[in-house]
C-alpha cells in the first residue's frame, strides 16, 4: 500500500460492474449510469472519478495492526457485490487541525471501530481525490458477498449517523453487482 | 488554505527567480537550470515539479494557532530570496501509522518547533506531490529577506540533523533571488 496507485472509476454503459442502485445522499447527484468500470477511462463515459490509494491519515499503529490481521483483499470470487461511495467534506472540516479531525473521526465517531465490526466480510479500499482537484474528496470501494449485503447496509447506516458525517456535504452511493 | 491549489515549479532558462545555487543532498539530482518559474509550465523547460497546497497532516490545533499568529505570507517586497526544497521520503516512512509519523515528526524531531524559531522572517508554503505521482513527495517554498539568509541556512541545518531526515532518500535544494 506504500506507493500511491491512481484508480479511475468510470460510469457509463460498459464495465465489469452492473449498477443495481445509484443514490445521492447529499449535494449534487452524478448522471445515472448502468455500468461502472475500474479500468482506464474510455470514450463515451458519463463520468470518471479519480482517486489515489495513499498512506494512512488517521489510523494509529494499534489500529493498523488490528486491521491488517482482520481484513481481506479485493477480488475475492464470492464478493460479487460492491459499492462505490464518493464523499466530499466541508471547508469547516478541512480547516480543522489534525488532532481535531482525528478526535471527530475516531474518538467521537468511531469510524475505524465501526468498520472493524464488519471485517472480514466487507473488504474496502480508500482513494484520496481532494488534492487531485476532483469533485469529491474520497472514494471508498467496498466488496462483499451477497449474503453480507444487509450487514454492509447496517455499517453504512451507522457511519452516516456519526458526528463525522455532519461534515459531509456531497455523497453519492452506487451499488454494483458482477456475474 | 482550505481549497487545494496546484503549483508548477518549472526550471529552465526563464522565470521570475534566478537560481543562485542548486544542490542535491540525497538521491538523484535535477538537471541544472538558471531560472525558476512558478507560472504554468512553458515549452522548453528542463523540468516541472507539481505540488498542491493541502490541509495540515500533523499540525495540532495549538500549533496551528501559534503558527497563524507568527507567520507572514509569501510575496513580501523585502523577501527577495527564496528556496525550493524538494524531498522524497522512504517506503519505511510511508508504511508507518499516523501516530508513529507524528511522533518522529514533532515529538522526536521538533519539525514545527524548529520552523517557529524562524518566524516571521522565513515565510513558507508546503506543497504535497506524492499522491500526484510526482518524483518527490513534498516541495517546500521559502521566502526571506537577504538579511535572513544565514538564519534560513541555520534552520535547514537543524532540520537535516533530525530523526525525520533519516527517512528522506531524495532531496534537492534550489536557492533563488529576484531583483
Protein model, in words:
Two copies of one chain form a homodimer. With 179 residues, chain A is an alpha+beta fold. Chain A contains five helices and eight strands; from the N terminus they run E-E-E-E-H-E-H-H-H-E-E-H-E. In chain A, strands 4-1-3-2-8-5-7-6 form an eight-stranded antiparallel beta sheet. In chain A, a hairpin with an 8-residue loop joins strand 2 (17-26) and strand 3. Chain A is globular and about 45 Å long. The two termini of chain A are 28 Å apart. The mean pLDDT of chain A is 96. Chain A binds chain B through residues 1-4, 6, 52, 54-61, 63-64, 91, 94-100, 102, 128, 130-133, and chain B through 1-4, 6, 52, 54-61, 63-64, 91, 94-100, 102, 128, 130-133.
Amino acid at each position: 500500500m506504500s506507493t500511491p496507485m491512481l484508480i479511475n472509476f468510470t460510469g457509463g454503459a460498459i464495465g465489469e460492474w452492473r449498477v443495481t442502485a445509484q443514490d445521492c445522499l447529499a449535494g449534487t447527484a452524478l448522471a445515472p449510469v448502468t455500468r461502472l468500470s475500474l479500468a482506464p477511462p474510455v470514450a463515451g463515459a458519463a463520468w470518471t472519478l479519480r482517486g489515489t490509494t495513499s498512506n494512512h491519515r488517521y489510523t494509529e499503529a494499534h489500529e493498523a495492526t488490528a486491521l491488517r490481521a482482520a481484513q481481506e483483499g479485493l477480488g475475492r470470487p464470492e464478493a460479487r457485490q460492491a459499492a462505490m461511495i464518493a464523499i466530499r467534506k466541508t471547508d469547516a472540516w478541512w480547516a480543522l487541525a489534525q488532532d481535531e479531525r482525528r478526535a471527530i473521526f475516531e474518538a467521537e465517531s468511531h469510524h475505524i471501530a465501526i468498520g472493524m465490526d464488519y471485517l472480514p466480510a466487507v473488504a474496502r479500499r480508500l482513494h484520496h481525490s481532494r488534492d487531485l482537484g476532483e469533485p469529491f474528496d474520497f472514494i471508498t470501494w467496498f466488496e462483499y458477498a451477497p449474503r453480507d449485503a444487509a450487514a454492509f447496509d447496517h455499517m453504512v447506516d451507522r457511519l452516516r449517523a456519526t458526528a463525522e458525517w455532519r461534515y459531509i456535504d456531497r455523497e453519492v452511493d452506487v451499488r454494483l453487482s458482477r456475474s
